[in-house]
């Protein structure tokens, strides 16, 4: 759909640094750039507003808000708790067939790996909720981490999670998954603190 195309375009422009925090988004300008009417642009921005990537401001239209560090912490904690909950709904026998071969653990493929793990579960509502939050996390990580190659420790963490799932040792997988999210949050906090536009 056109609005999805516009949404991906805007996310890409933000991640590239072409759109800045606190910048007002001009619907007519975006529509001209994409050779579209303003309707799909407005629909795309409304979708991004639901994910809290943009906000509507009186007399200003849509703007990209500064990152609030407290919200970032809440976001990562919420997603980690929901993903841990999702592990409880893994389909029997399916977990034993789950395996992701990767020797490169990057910001870009990290959420894709987590998505594959989520899809093994039975709870589709939970999956949609978490994947919506992944959109916001991917947005922030795209800005602050870019496509950074994460350290070997992160790859080792994922290998341990995967092994626990394959062995159907769900309690261990849940603990390791939560630790993985905490590690990523700590990395994000370090990068965000270097940015002078952070709100508390």
TrEMBL record:
This is HTH gntR-type domain-containing protein. SUPFAM superfamilies: Winged helix' DNA-binding domain (SSF46785). Residues 6-64 form the HTH gntR-type domain. The lineage of its organism: Bacteria, Pseudomonadati, Bacteroidota, Flavobacteriia, Flavobacteriales. Keywords: DNA-binding, Transcription, Transcription regulation. It comes from Croceivirga radicis. SMART domains: HTH_GNTR. One of its GO terms (molecular function) is DNA binding. Pfam families: GntR.
